[in-house]
Design a protein that fits this description.
Layout lengths: L2 E7 L3 H9 L9 E7 L7 H6 L4 E7 L2 E10 L5
Parallel strand pairs: 1-2
Antiparallel strand pairs: 1-3, 3-4
């Protein structure tokens, strides 16, 4: 069974580029990737913060947040 990975973004060009390059490159046999657009799903910002997300785009795998480039700070999304 695949582990879960969550890719958080805000829809900005940096985020969309990272989604295409990173999230889509993850081996689906190892990770089920959920894409979360925090710009339109603000109810999940607290969840992202709790997972350690400080800026987007970010990928959370196995409880570790990996920040990819810099599109927007998490506080800018609130």
């Amino acid at each position: 069974m695949a582990s879960k990975a969550i890719f958080y973004h805000a829809g900005c060009p940096v985020c969309v580029s990272a989604e295409q390059a990173v999230a889509n490159a993850i081996d689906p046999s190892k990770y089920a990737v959920e894409i979360v657009h925090l710009g339109t799903d603000k109810a999940r910002i607290a969840e992202a913060e709790k997972a350690g997300v400080k800026s987007v785009p970010a990928l959370v795998i196995d409880g570790a947040a990996f920040h990819i480039n810099f599109g927007a700070g998490i506080d800018d999304l609130k």
